[in-house]
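Here is one chain, start to finish.
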Amino acid sequence: MAYKSLNDFITDLEKIEELQRIKSFVNPILEISEITDRVTKTRGKALLFENNGTQFPVLINAFGSQKRMLMALSSKDLNETGKEIEKIFTSFSGTSGSIINKIARLPNLIKLSGFFPYKSSFKGRCQQVILRDPDLGVLPVLKCWPYDGNRFITLPMVHTIHPETANTNVGMYRMQILGKNTTGMHWQLHKTGANHFEAWKKTGKKMPVSVALGGDPVYTYAATAPLPENIDEYILAGFLRGEKVKLVKCISNNLYVPADADIIIEGYVDPSEDLVWEGPFGDHTGFYSLADWYPIFHVTCLTHARDAVYPATIVGVPPQEDAFLTRANEKIFLTPIKLALQPEIEDIHMPDAGVAHNLVIVKIKKKYSGQGMKVINSLLGAGQMMFTKFIVVVDGDVNIRDYKNLIKKVFSDTDFTKDLVFSQGPLDVLDHSSDTFAFGGKLGIDATTKKPEEKLRIISSRVTIDSTPQDVLKILKSSNLIVNHNSDLLDENIPLLILSVDNSVDSEVMNKLRNILKGTPGFGRFIIILVVDYTIDINDCFTVAWQVLGNSDPIRDHYYINGFALLIDATIKVFRPGGFPRKWPNVVCSNPETITEVDKKWEQLGLGDLVLSPSLKTKSMKHNGDAELIR
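Its structure:
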């Protein structure tokens, strides 16, 4: 079903008790984010903050459950949506060029063409109120976290057009408020918006940009979807909603935006203008993305519906609302990946701890030797998968969302001296762990069942286990190098050891630790050793996984102990000998003042029993009072 506004979506959410209206005043500066963080992490309802100091209610956490995600995408089952897409893609991907086959594919072509957006000559709902002297101060823009550079628009659908090809794009790029009618435009190096910007530079003209907020929630999903460049996001939106998207021309530029959006911010970016220092911003990685240079967006007109709702989201330490957008991508884009790249792929999963691009689990139907390695090498260069740092390929009947059985499968079918593929390539610009910006190490793990030919490879010399796990731990404890350890997984036949250290006190702790481990015969059955900072709760496997995936460069930070055990250093690198060549970001969390203020308000919010702030746990990971971790 196509929604005509966010209010229509809100009405449906309320009918199924998936929405909580909050009528008491809540400040968009830090308080809305702190409340949302508590609700999101307890899998609570969507929130509508009706009293925020502006005329626009704030809708947040709208996508924060599987049920709400399905409603937003007008789907009863994303698996069925994926199958519908598969039928269309399969129809178009046939190799035969015969007239009969082309005619046979026409019904699907006609069906798809029915979802192309169309342009109306009339004004839209989004233009019921026109503000020609725009002031962004009328909007309830959030400041999400204490060290954010300012308030940020967090769910903007940014419309741009290529000056030569006229191809349009709708991307999701955060926008930092700079003044009454200016913002930063954070389109990153690899994004289509940045490509359009570079093309406009050559023309010597100002680049038209328009930003839509709200409307059918499927638009927001389409703007975040990993579509190939030059594929219109509103075709996907039309397909998902079952109705083509109606577009209207903006008031002050020639771009077209959804007629049923709630709010439109029109303007331009001048490529000849100096860039602006934008950020920091508490990002979806769980760390602050630090300030950098980005273009300025100048607002020329602001329009909105009379009953407009302001949509927002927060990101930060996972899991957050964006995890459900990632899960939708897993289902909807599995078919294009299979047909375009790897037909043997049966399933793909991006765990929450991997914040979308740090870890991808792939399940394949294996038929021949080397197939796992082939899939790793192919996916690491494919589209947005090129940003993936760790990729694990498995086969068989394992459920790749059952992490305990998945990790058992990995240990059972992986020789960590032979089945790993290390490489280098592009990384997301938000990755902070690599020595170089947007470029670093990657690791692929072939955990598929090995064929006879693969078993004939040179076998690494077997290590005699001369020591027990208890012996190893006794030696480590006596060294005074480790702060804590967790070897509990060994009781479930998972040979994984987690250690925590404090390298802020001793910068040589990792070198000393490796030397001690090398001197421990056999190493007592442990095959993988993860080393994290002493501030981490090593009994919380989700947090450990998030830190390992975020804080390590797979090439730089892996070491073999005694020829067979793999150690991964996931500690903060600014304390290592010689320091770190880049700025290292702090973990995102609320400040004590905001936590206390929200605790006081909680009862009047109508959200039930008090939920403690997630930041009470993560605050121990902070190292100073700034977005940047300074040694």
